[in-house]
Structures are given as structure tokens and as C-alpha cells.
């Protein structure tokens, strides 16, 4: 099984190196037979090849079993053809439509919670992915901008189905988050699609909450939620909120999954404010890779990969449980590389 490793921008190379140390140890100890291919994207690729995502690399993406993708500093990318948003490319062109974003407090937290946000990735308020050609983020006059959102029943139903399937493996509760009081058609269609999929999952309880109220509910009582299903932009914002409430964005693991291909990519961005300082928390990347292994285990009927994902999360939890082996974002003393060492040692100790 072949995994392509693309460290990305900013803190990407640091957190990817730490996470790959853990994955390499896991691959050896569990005899998983994973082969890794390394390449560059983002600013490193722009400087060397004139594009953040080279055509020959694009051609290799669909042939992978999985992709390990660092954050991309899209704000710094040029607007011309060389500045391809790698995340958006994977989401739309390779149809990695389901963004699975857990938010879980570390062991020993005073107010524990454990929820997962299931976010649609291919349409919604992201105007760069709503047109067959061109961009739906338009300037009508120099002083009037119009951004168009697309919501389809097909994309809404399939993301809802992923959410209900996930809920069946957890506490069997789904909360749909929307703004159907204002966007009666767009969010109304999304909500209608979620409700129709719910009919196939009678064991799962469905409720729904307006996105603004949801922000308050997450702060007030995050333990109330199990699986949250929502659109692209709401999910992006709420998942950063939920992760920070769990302790730090640095804990925020995530996958972007299609039907045949999955990419591990942390929720956060390239964190230019701490890049190159050995300060970033690689837990997000380690957890993302564990989620990828879990997805591969289910997709290819490989229980050894599922067990390896569990071992990786157990080692991560072991390191996070002790305040003395946490990174700075959680108030701990460790740097990125030392945290990777700690998780690797916990893994090897079993
Ligand atoms: P960010 O997520 O990079 O950072 C927000 C804050 O969280 C910063 O203070 C940062 O230091 C902190 N943080 C993030 N990850 C951390 C980690 N692992 N450990 C400790 N602290 C961490 O958001 P931003 O600064 O608004 O965006 C920077 C760039 O990343 C922008 O170009 C943006 O477009 C891009 N971005 C990319 C992705 C992605 O690749 N999936 C996601 C979000 C933002």
C-alpha cells in the first residue's frame, strides 16, 4: 500500500516529520507493509518548479492509496496559474468530499467532550469550487462583490450518509447545523436532504441547530454533541472553535475522504507565526494519520490497519495525558520533535 507524503508550507514540514517518525515506527512494529513516497507542494514547489502543484504530481495523485498532506499557505500563493490551492484541488478534482474533524479533550480534562464534525467539502460558500469554469467570487463593479454559493441534493445526501454511518459507530446522535431560517432554499435543501437520509437510520436520533446558536452551544455544552453534519464554511469555522475548546488547534486531526481515496490533513493552516521554531503541536498530524489508517482499514478490509490506528491514538493519548509531555500550545515544555519522540516511545512501549 502506497502513501504519498506532501509536507506543505509553514509548520507543515515540522509536524509531518514528527508524525512520520511515529508512523514509520508503527509500520515496522506492526508489519503494515506501507510504502512512502515523498514529494513537495506549496511554496517549496513554487520556488523550484514555478507551481505549487506540478502537473506530473497531479497525475500521480489518483494512483495513491492515501495521501499525507501538510497545511498550505494559500494566502501567500500567487493569484496566477502557479498558485494552485492544493487542498481545494484534492477536494474537488479528486472528489474528496467528506471532511471528518474530531474534537476531543485530552485525557484528564476537567470538562471532557468527544464530538466529530462531518463537513461537506466540494461546494457551499466556497465560490472557487462552484463553477464548471471560472470562479463564483465576482466583482460586479470595483465596489460591488458578489459571491455565489452552490448547494446540491446529491452532495448534501452523501455527506449526511457519511455522518449517519459514523454515528452508528458512536452514540447514534446526529446534529444538522444550518441557517435555514435565512437561506430557506440553500440551507433548506441541505436540511431536507439530511432528514431524508435520516429515514434510513432509524436507530440514530437527529436534531438540528442554527449555526449561530451552535457557536454558543459549543462553548456552553460541547459534551451535548456526538456527530455534527454541516456545510463547507460552517464546518470550517465550527471545527476550529471545537478544536480550540478541546485544548488547542494543534490537537485538530482531520481527513478528507472520497469513496476511493483519502487524505490526512490537519484542520489548521500553516501557522506562519510559529513556523520553523519547533513550537507547533504535531498531535493534529499524528491523529490525522491515525484517521487515515482507520479509513484504509475499513476501505480495504484490513483489520491490522484499524488496530494500528488504535495503537497510534493510544500512544498519542498517553503523551497528552501528562502535562510534562505536552507542547507549548497546551502549556507544556516540549517542542515539535520532542513530542514526536515521546509518542514514538509510548508506541514502542506498547
Ligand atoms: P492557522 O490555522 O495556520 O493558525 C491559527 C492559529 O493557530 C495560529 O496562532 C497558529 O500558531 C495556531 N496553530 C495552528 N496550528 C497549530 C499547531 N499545530 N500547533 C500549535 N499552534 C497551532 O490559521 P491562519 O494563520 O489564519 O492561516 C495561515 C495560512 O494557512 C493561510 O494561508 C491560510 O489560508 C492557510 N490555511 C490552510 C489550511 C489547510 O491547509 N488545510 C487550513 C486553514 C488555513
Please give a quick description of this structure.
With 350 residues, this protein is an alpha/beta fold. The chain is built from 11 helices and 12 strands. The chain is globular.
Helix-strand blueprint:
Elements: E1 2-6, H1 12-29, E2 35-38, H2 42-49, H3 55-60, E3 66-69, H4 86-93, E4 98-104, E5 114-120, E6 137-141, E7 144-147, H5 153-168, E8 173-178, H6 186-198, E9 205-210, H7 211-220, E10 227-230, H8 232-246, E11 255-257, E12 262-264, H9 283-299, H10 303-321, H11 336-349
Parallel strand pairs: 1-2, 1-3, 3-12, 5-10, 8-9, 8-10
Antiparallel strand pairs: 4-5, 4-11, 6-7, 11-12
Helix pairs in contact: 1-9, 1-11, 5-6, 7-8, 9-10, 10-11
This protein binds nicotinamide-adenine-dinucleotide.
Description:
The chain is of the alpha/beta class and 350 residues long. The chain has two domains: 1-101 and 249-350, Isopropylmalate Dehydrogenase (3-Layer(aba) Sandwich); 110-246, Isopropylmalate Dehydrogenase. The protein is built from eleven helices and twelve strands. It has helices at residues 12-29, 42-49, 55-60, 86-93, 153-168, 186-198, 211-220, 232-246, 283-299, 303-321, 336-349; strands spanning 2-6, 35-38, 66-69, 98-104, 114-120, 137-141, 144-147, 173-178, 205-210, 227-230, 255-257, 262-264. Helix 1 packs across helix 9 (283-299), helix 1 (12-29) packs parallel to helix 11 and helix 9 (283-299) packs antiparallel against helix 10. The chain is globular and about 55 Å long. The mean pLDDT is 96. The structure holds nicotinamide-adenine-dinucleotide.
Amino acid at each position: 500500500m502506497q502513501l504519498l507524503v506532501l509536507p506543505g508550507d509553514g509548520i507543515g514540514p515540522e509536524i509531518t516529520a514528527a508524525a512520520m517518525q511515529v508512523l514509520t515506527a508503527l509500520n515496522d512494529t506492526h508489519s503494515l507493509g506501507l510504502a512512502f513516497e515523498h514529494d513537495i507542494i506549496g511554496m517549496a514547489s513554487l520556488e523550484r518548479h514555478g507551481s505549487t502543484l506540478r502537473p506530473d504530481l497531479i497525475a500521480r495523485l489518483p494512483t495513491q492509496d492515501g495521501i499525507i498532506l501538510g497545511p498550505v499557505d494559500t494566502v501567500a500563493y500567487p493569484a496566477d496559474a502557479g498558485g494552485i490551492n492544493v487542498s481545494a484541488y484534492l477536494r474537488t478534482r479528486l472528489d474528496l468530499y467528506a471532511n471528518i474533524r474530531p474534537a476531543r479533550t485530552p485525557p484528564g480534562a476537567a470538562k471532557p467532550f468527544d464530538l466529530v464534525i462531518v463537513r461537506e467539502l466540494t461546494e457551499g460558500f466556497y465560490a472557487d469550487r462552484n463553477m464548471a469554469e471560472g470562479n463564483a467570487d465576482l466583482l460586479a463593479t470595483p465596489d460591488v462583490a458578489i459571491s455565489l454559493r452552490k448547494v446540491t441534493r446529491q452532495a448534501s445526501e452523501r455527506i449526511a450518509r457519511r455522518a449517519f454511518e459514523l454515528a452508528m459507530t458512536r452514540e447514534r446522535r446526529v446534529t444538522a447545523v444550518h441557517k435555514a431560517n435565512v437561506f430557506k432554499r440553500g440551507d433548506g435543501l441541505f436540511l431536507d436532504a439530511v432528514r431524508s437520509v435520516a429515514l434510513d437510520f432509524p436507530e440514530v436520533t437527529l436534531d438540528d441547530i442554527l449555526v449561530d446558536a451552535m457557536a454558543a452551544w459549543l462553548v456552553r455544552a460541547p459534551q451535548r454533541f456526538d456527530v455534527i453534519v454541516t456545510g463547507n464554511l460552517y464546518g470550517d469555522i465550527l471545527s476550529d472553535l471545537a478544536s480550540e475548546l478541546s485544548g488547542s488547534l494543534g490537537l485538530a486531526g482531520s481527513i478528507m475522504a472520497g469513496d476511493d481515496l483519502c487524505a490526512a490533513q490537519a484542520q489548521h493552516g500553516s501557522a506562519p507565526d510559529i513556523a520553523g521554531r519547533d513550537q507547533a503541536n504535531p498531535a493534529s498530524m499524528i491523529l490525522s494519520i491515525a484517521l487515515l489508517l482507520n479509513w484504509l482499514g475499513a476501505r480495504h478490509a484490513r483489520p491490522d490497519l484499524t488496530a494500528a490506528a488504535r495503537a497510534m491514538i493510544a500512544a498519542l493519548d498517553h503523551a497528552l495525558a501528562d502535562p510534562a509531555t505536552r507542547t507549548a500550545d497546551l502549556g507544556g515544555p516540549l517542542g515539535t520533535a520532542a513530542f514526536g519522540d515521546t509518542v514514538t516511545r509510548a508506541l514502542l512501549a506498547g
